[in-house]
Design brief:
mainly alpha; hpI Integrase, Chain A; 2 domains; 3-stranded antiparallel beta sheet; two-stranded antiparallel ribbon; 17 helices; 5 strands
């Protein structure tokens, strides 16, 4: 039996309802229990200042984790500003040496803190956190501190030294978000599993083709796509003289764009046909493009959760007889650039479609493709 909600929690829930569109779906009740009144007011302020939805979701998720950790570690909500000792405790709890812990149970995150975070669903994996995760949460902690008009100890030499020494003591190889890229040969196998006229197959085919062909769109961009972002463009003439359907997708502000910049990418040919087939089959004439489908075949009015896009990719990978653990939705993004490199498409042209801002990051896929197909890799 759940305990009755206090007036304070109900007030926070109402406050979170006003920014529900940018919060993790299904997490409002838990967030209302963890966040303080001031936390909610800060988030509402960030919405009003025009902070990007994806950035705000990440900020909210990290804030909830930090509040849960603080309650478990010191028995109270986060203090603002946080003292240096608490920041150092956070690093010690999350970056530690598994080998040393075997002989010293007090090294790393205490067992009671570990259990408390697992019980509320904030800790799933075992072992120390990834250094990038710890750095991101500290950075968001610092950002929230500044938004409150306060100064923190986030730039202190002691904290920087603690992070540097912890990372050096436990080296971790950097892993890609998707172990394998979804290149055209893999994509063909996934599309082959979408061969029926069922709504689910028509939708998943459109998701896979649109996400890949539009430059490897992020799962949040795919899930948040709306009909109003699509503009029909004049047909494109194919090499055989036929006319290929074309449309533009106005992405608006993205993860890597400026605040005022409207990012636009284009689709031509089969991806447009697949998308139109889904819109007609699902009778979507406005609002969210990609939506959930229940067991009876009814199409929801709500947009898919970004996690559902990842689940769809993994499900299709398994249906194709491949290892679902090797692929994720991000594999469509890395796969697009990998495929572009293999086909000899110039990097600037591919980046116009993928909307990568960093040439260094995008070129890494090109360098890998060149090395894989080059003479140095074919000595025998």
């Amino acid at each position: 039996m759940s305990k009755p909600s206090s007036p304070s929690i109900e007030k926070r829930t109402e406050g979170l309802d006003t920014i529900a569109a940018v919060l993790p779906i299904g997490r409002r009740d838990k967030l209302a229990e963890l966040l303080t009144d001031q936390d909610v007011e800060t988030l509402r302020h960030l919405v009003n200042t025009g902070m990007g939805e994806n950035t705000l979701r990440a900020l909210t998720s990290d804030l909830a984790y930090l509040e849960a950790w603080s309650l478990a570690a010191v028995g109270s909500p986060l203090p603002w500003p946080a003292p240096e000792a608490l920041l150092l405790k956070f690093v010690a709890h999350h970056l530690w040496d598994p080998a040393k812990r075997e002989g010293d149970p007090n090294h790393g995150m205490p067992d009671d803190v570990d259990r408390a975070l697992r019980n509320v669903g904030f800790l799933r994996s075992t072992g120390p956190h990834a250094p990038d995760t710890v750095r991101r949460r500290l950075a968001n902690w610092s950002t929230l501190t500044k938004w409150r008009g306060l100064d923190g100890a986030f730039a202190s030499p002691a904290l920087r030294s603690a992070i540097r020494l912890s990372v050096r003591a436990v080296p971790r190889p950097r892993r890609r978000k998707s172990a394998r890229a979804v290149t055209s040969d893999v994509l063909a196998k996934l599309l082959a599993t979408c061969s029926t006229d069922s709504l689910r197959d028509i939708r998943d085919r459109a998701i896979l083709m649109v996400a890949f062909a539009s430059g490897g769109r992020r799962r949040s961009e795919v899930a948040g796509l709306r009909k109003e972002q699509l503009t029909v463009e004049p047909p494109v003439k194919a090499e055989d003289g036929s006319a290929l359907p074309s449309l533009s997708i106005h992405l608006g502000r993205t993860k890597t764009s400026g605040a005022e910049k409207d990012e636009v990418v284009y689709l031509t040919g089969q991806p447009v046909e697949a998308l139109n087939a889904w819109l007609v089959a699902a009778k979507i004439d406005g609002g969210s493009v990609f939506r959930g489908i229940d067991r009876w075949g009814n199409v929801s009015r709500r947009a898919l959760d970004p996690k559902a896009v990842n689940d769809i990719v993994k499900s299709r990978v398994a249906m194709a007889g491949l290892d679902a653990g090797e692929f994720s939705a991000h594999g469509l993004r890395s796969g697009y650039l990998t495929e572009a490199a293999s086909r000899g498409i110039p990097l600037p042209e591919a980046m116009e479609q993928s909307r990568h801002r960093s040439v260094q990051q995008a070129s890494s896929y090109y360098n890998s493709a060149a090395r894989r197909t080059g003479k140095a890799a074919r000595m025998l």
